[in-house]
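Data follows
____________
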Amino acid sequence: VLQPAHFHVARDHLVLTDPAQLALDEADARTLFDAAQPLFAELGYGLRYGSSACWFLQADAWSALRTCTPAAASGHNVDVWLPHGAGERDWRRLHNEVQILWHIHPLNEQREARGQHRVNALWLWGGAADSEPPPGIFAQLLAGSPANVRAGMAGTSDSPLHIDTSLAPSALAADWGGWLAALQDIDRRQAAALLAALRSGEIAQLT
């Protein structure tokens, strides 16, 4: 998964700004995507557009890269969280080329004039080997569709897949009182209802 991002300069390092603060619309995202795509194609990597906030990269040689979500890295020194492992140098080299291209792009000048963040980076995360299920679910979630979605992946049953992200904000802020309260809320809102549905036979199986 590739997400357009903004790195801002702290005193002696770069910091990832929360991608949600980019306010990147479809037109701007498409413009930046179209500018960057030839750089990926030249190296044989397939870049695909998902939404303004979420693109996809097919780079099999990088499937072993260790990455983290932008939620975990936001507000922190990017050096600690950047992808590392096999393919790390190749990714950084390509990323630098994209950054140089976008730095001189008129769109970023226009965004800055409007008081918006420049789009000056990409955040790479969520890689998988080609034998693993594709991360299609990420596209639906990042595009803002409901979290209760159907996986629709080849080789899997068409079963509802629910992802609850309410624990993330308190976990990332190390607010463990808030985390426990959110967990209790999940228990009240979801777990009890699911248990009742299992007992009544409304659903046959819960994983």
